[in-house]
Amino acid sequence: MKTFYIETFGCQMNAHDSEKVIGTLMQQGYQQVATPEDAGLVLYNTCSIRDKAEQKVFSRLQQFKRAGAGKVFGVLGCVAQQEGENIFDRAPHVSLVCGSASYTKLPELLVQIENGERRVTGLNLDTEDTFETPFTRRDNPHRAYLTVMEGCDKSCAYCVVPFTRGPERSRTGASILEEVRQLASHGYTEIQLLGQNVNSYRDPSSGGLDFAGLLREVAAVPGLRRVRFTTSHPRDFGKEIIDSMDENPVLCNHVHLPVQSGSDHVLKRMLRHYTRDEYMRRIEWMKQSGRNIAITTDMIVGFPGESDADFQQTLDLVDEVEYDSMFSFKYSPRPNTSALTLSDPVPEEEKGRRLTILQEKQRAIQIRRNADLVGKVEEVMVEGYNHGTGQWIGRTSQHRTLNFTTTAQLPEGAYLDVRVTRAGPNSLAGEAVSQIQ
Ligand code: 5AD
Ligand code: SF4
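# iron/sulfur cluster complex -> structure
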């Protein structure tokens, strides 16, 4: 029997790619197993967004340098694309190296491996392909990821993604809507539309939809209760997106809009192509909309040349926006990126100090914003039950975790109303006030 094990690192795009890879492998007669020890084929779907993420796969491979005799090892995803055949030098027991832009070739590559080829690669980035497959093995029976576009045409100075995922290419609206309808007919009630720059979506067929149009069409599919999307780039984030959210309650109360820095000087050096004012205009649209939109962001501190005054502007912006949640990172130099040529006089310890200050500020904001919700009633989707605490785990439209108690037995994927009774920095707690709806 052909068996495989897969471990996934990185973002939702990677998680969803793995769901597609798993389906493709099963179609080829492979069976998924729970541990690398039990598998004939061991795959790592990798991330290289920061150095730490990249190192993980090499430490995993190291573990099997000896213990992996008789197994086939494959590296997929962003490290595969970035390092290419160098991976064979660093980890000679690897046989397959394949980036996400080549996944449509996976069945062919697998056959080559089965035929005993020792080194097989899929590394072409010059592609119009999007990885569409009817065999996707989705992890969750209620909430489905769905790719609308792949790749990235921006060239942010710090970012590997254009080098690891290739140029932007969108799926046709017809194929996306077909998949959404199918998912709804299989009982999925939540769809998360994915793209590295999801709002740059443009239907390649003539007279096709832009992203706001796609949102309207997806949200209108009968049976869906929640539609989310990630990640948005501020430059292409038009007011029509907020208008479509205003019009359609199925579109969730949440926008993730990475800003990266609050300083125009840094934004310029990052090649983000928007100013702080332009970013804030988008925040105003959201705050003035009829919806109670949760706003979240990504932030990089210690980008080369970031001065104390620049960092202060980031702190000011965070005070002004009051994000509901934030992912913040210390700048990590990445191969091929243009920021490698910038001089960087800021010492590492200073970067670490700034990250701590930013994260403490954000934590205080989250405590305040979550506390504002105490007493309110929120609809949640049930994600599971925590036997340790005796609480059900719910997710609000704003993407907050709301743990709650009820005497009823709930199926996962159910929706009901919960009154918020307590708030912490990262989650809410409450009591159910309605039956399943
Ligand atoms: N160093 C640190 N953080 C980075 N990100 C992307 N590239 C880097 C890098 N070189 C962060 C950005 C992005 C998020 C996914 O990861 O904030 O939005
Ligand atoms: Fe990591 Fe970026 Fe690749 Fe996602 S696209 S896996 S975040 S490097």
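# post-check
Residues 102 and 122 are 5 Å apart (CA to CA).
The first helix runs from residue 12 to 27.
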